[in-house]
């Protein structure tokens, strides 16, 4: 096998790994989409468990977090800066009522936009630094790359999907009472 063939195989394997990570992120989105379409909208205005966040806040938090990927990856400015504080703060960080219907539309449009942009990145771009790390820090820790950020964001979504499932359990328990 020639050196060029070895390089081609290595590049194909890197692309395969990148595709798997994107697909993992998409699978988390799809699972959340499925959950968001299970109940009437007013159900999502409830706390997922007593004393916990409302489901509508969890959705806004996930949107704010994904929206933060745009400047982080060099895709442009955030699409929904009005909910940006919800990436790191509680629901009281915004002074307006969260509309579940509007948030669902934002969630869908943002994730479609991100998927399109993710598919356009080259392996070199995926393994390159994101915009929150300096060149010097990236040289010290090259794992601070875009692909690693997406892995972490997909895991973050999965964590919050687990929180949302408590809402299903509460709804079922309420029916039994």
TrEMBL record:
It comes from Mucilaginibacter polytrichastri. This is Uncharacterized protein. It comes from the Bacteria. InterPro entries: DinB/YfiT-like.
